[in-house]
Amino acid sequence: MKRTQAREQAFSILFSDCFGEQSAEELVENALAAQEYENDEYSLLLINGVKDNKEKLDEVISVNLNKNWKIGRLPKTTLAILRIAIFEILFLDDVPDSVSVNEAVELAKKFGSENDYVFINGLLGSVVRSK
């Protein structure tokens, strides 16, 4: 499986996690049972990494939001995409920051609302600059 596909798969699972708290194992197990998940090492790395570092990722998102915005106002799609990209940026040295940002923008274009990708690109740019 290509990493782009692995990110989409991780996004799908992590998006569903925005609606209820489950362990990474439960999320993957449920997706496997529904035949919505193909076993993949990279998507599993993303799912576990985001779940294990959720507080840190949300803190980074909050710090980089405009002062009038709160993380709770973000659409769930945007939140899941940001968490994946910021996990890659902060924790995966083998993935260039520009690739993480570009992949997040592409996920937003595919799954988000009309202009979500602009917001995601801007916020991730701030994260990369402050790294």
Overview of the structural elements:
With 131 residues, the protein is an all-alpha fold. It has a single domain (3-130), classed as NusB-like (N-utilizing Substance Protein B Homolog, Chain A, Orthogonal Bundle), CATH 1.10.940. The chain has seven helices and no strands. The chain has helices spanning 3-17, 24-33, 41-52, 54-64, 76-91, 97-111, 116-130. The termini are far apart.
Figure out the total of helices.
Answer: 7
Order of helices and strands: HHHHHHH
How many beta-strand elements?
0
Spans of at least 5 consecutive residues with low confidence: none
For the sheet with most strands, the description reads: none
Calculate the mean pLDDT score and round it. Answer: 88
Q: What is the distance, rounded to the nearest whole angstrom, between the alpha carbons of the first and last residues?
A: 29 Å
For the record, the CATH architecture stands as Orthogonal Bundle
CATH top-level class:
Mainly Alpha
